[in-house]
Write a structure and sequence with these properties.
- The protein is an alpha+beta fold.
- 30% of the residues lie in helices and 27% in strands.
- Strands 6, 8, 9, 11, 12 and 13 form a six-stranded mixed sheet that branches. Strands 14, 15, 16, 19 and 20 form a five-stranded antiparallel sheet that branches. The chain has a five-stranded antiparallel sheet with strand order 18-17-21-22-23.
- β11 and β12 form a beta hairpin.
- It is elongated.
- The two termini are 52 Å apart.
């Protein structure tokens, strides 16, 4: 045991001596730490250059972000008319009032934190048409959120039956669009509102016709009645005048106005609203089965949520109104569909790399397979960014949250009706990056590690040189070797440039 202890003490003394000679200037190393001598600094520089060459080669092979078109009002209108032209439909005319109404609706969604045709306070889209001063005989609305290009918005609308019907309808003549950005549920989002309409033509005022003067007829000459003896009447019972009492009238059939016909709903308990006779009890049915009862307000509006979840699939909604013992006829059926299933799309080959364009950020690229994804977003801790899609391939950058030793990179896939699927993509730590989905193979497994480790290598080496130089300056401050300090500072500067540009 004593022999083992002696061996350990001698080994520790040797390590201490080598460390002291490598980093601390003293008489034994001629006040020139071995780790900062010219030969050591030359080896460091060569190693750094070799690592930089390898990383640069990988970065050249790795594609950079592609340019995408702006998401603007003018581009949305242009692409809408292009889609109509491709389908043989006449172009729409941009209307200033509809633009204003769409902007009011977009601002209202951001301020009240909702994304729906009808607001939580039951304000319908048609309110914004009238508020903007657009009187219509027919109107429609399309909405979108979290898209980054105008092309993606139009493609998503065309892929949805109800949105496509609006976009390619032959009855509409005017169009208005608004694009607004702001916080939605704590995340910066961009909402797009598209209004369609047919303006009501102003009726001509009828000409006034002055009636002809009419000469009043002369009153008939009164004749003085003659005195006639009348016998005292015999009192007999008299029936009062019979008045015809109209039969009780049942309330008018209600009208379902929300959600829009043909809408695909992402919730099993959607808000259902409409109009009915004032203060009547309204019962709503789905495929003949009662799903809720409410009472219309003083303006004749009503809304409710189903008491039980609606099953996924198509539903025919109807409503009746009851006043006392009288029941209205059933409303016209409103056809909607419920889809609460998350998108079935999946991630293809995906790579997570430290960004060589933005220090401290990550570059995420890959492919999304499947046709039911309308929007996608990538999250790293509390940070997130939209994934711009182009034929299934995507490339984006984001900065992971600060202050966490391990970050989970997650991709959010959203379909056209708002269902969400969360896919864990990668686990990121200071020393490693592991791509979780899909399982990487071959080069796809090693490219992230090469670039990721290179940045950690530069950072660790920079810290080592900085500490060694600091010790060299502080210890034996009167005995300094200026060439060592100068060369070390130059190497530190070079490392800093490499970390910023890699």
């Amino acid at each position: 045991m004593a022999r083992l202890t002696h061996h350990l003490q001698r080994h520790c003394a040797t390590v201490k001596r080598h460390f002291w000679n490598a980093f601390v200037p003293h008489e034994g190393n001629d006040h020139r730490p071995h780790a900062l001598r010219h030969r050591a600094l030359t080896v460091y520089a060569i190693a750094i250059i070799l690592v930089k060459i390898v990383v640069s080669g990988v970065a050249i092979v790795y594609p950079g972000p592609s340019a995408t078109s702006d998401l603007t009002q003018a581009q949305i209108i242009k692409l809408t008319n292009a889609a109509r032209a491709n389908n043989g439909v006449k172009a729409l005319t941009t209307n200033a009032a509809l633009n204003s109404g769409a902007q009011l609706k977009a601002n209202d969604m951001l301020s009240k934190q909702y994304f729906a045709h009808v607001s939580p306070t039951k304000v319908t889209p048609w309110y914004w048409f009238k508020k903007a001063g657009y009187n219509y005989s027919a109107a429609g609305e399309n909405l979108a959120i979290d898209f980054t290009t105008s092309e993606d918005v139009i493609e998503a609308w065309l892929a949805s039956a109800s949105h496509r019907k609006n976009l390619l309808s032959t009855q509409y003549k005017d169009i208005g669009v608004a694009v607004a950005s702001g916080k939605m549920n704590g995340v910066t989002s961009t909402v797009i509102v598209q209004f369609f309409g047919v303006a009501v033509k102003t009726k001509q005022q009828p000409q006034k016709v002055t009636p002809k003067a009419v000469t009043p007829a002369k009153p008939a000459t009164s004749t003085k009645p003659s005195s006639v003896a009348v016998a005292s009447p015999v009192t007999t019972p008299v029936l009062g005048e019979e008045t015809e009492v109209p039969p009780p009238v049942p309330p008018a059939a209600p009208k379902l106005t929300s959600p829009d016909a043909g809408t695909i709903l992402a919730t099993a308990t959607p808000w259902i609203g409409g109009e009915a006779q004032v203060s009547t009890d309204v019962t709503v049915f789905s495929d003949g089965k009662r799903i809720g009862v409410t009472t219309s307000d003083s303006k004749g509006y009503f809304s409710l949520q189903p008491t039980d979840n609606l099953a996924d699939g198509s539903h025919a909604l109807t409503a009746i109104a009851v006043s006392g013992d009288l029941q209205s006829a059933a409303s016209a059926p409103l056809s909607v569909s419920v889809d609460t299933q998350p998108p079935s799309a999946s991630l293809g080959t995906t790579i997570v790399l430290p960004s060589y364009l933005s220090p401290g950020s990550l570059t995420v690229s890959g492919t999304i397979t499947g046709d039911d994804v309308a929007a996608a977003r990538v999250y790293a801790g509390t940070s997130s960014t939209t994934i711009p899609q182009s034929k299934g391939a995507f490339l984006t950058q984001l900065a992971p949250s600060v202050g966490s030793s391990t970050d989970m990179i997650t991709v959010e896939l959203k379909d056209s009706v708002g269902n969400i699927s969360l896919v864990p993509l990668a686990s990121l730590s200071f020393l490693d990056v592991a791509v979780l989905q899909p399982t990487p193979e071959g080069l796809a497994e090693w490219i992230p590690r090469i670039i990721f480790f290179s940045r950690k290598f530069f950072l660790t080496f920079w810290m080592f040189l900085f500490l060694a130089l600091a010790v060299n300056v502080i210890v034996k401050i009167r005995v300094q070797h200026r060439p060592i300090i100068l060369y070390s500072l130059l190497l530190l500067y070079g490392l800093t440039i490499i970390m910023v540009t890699t």
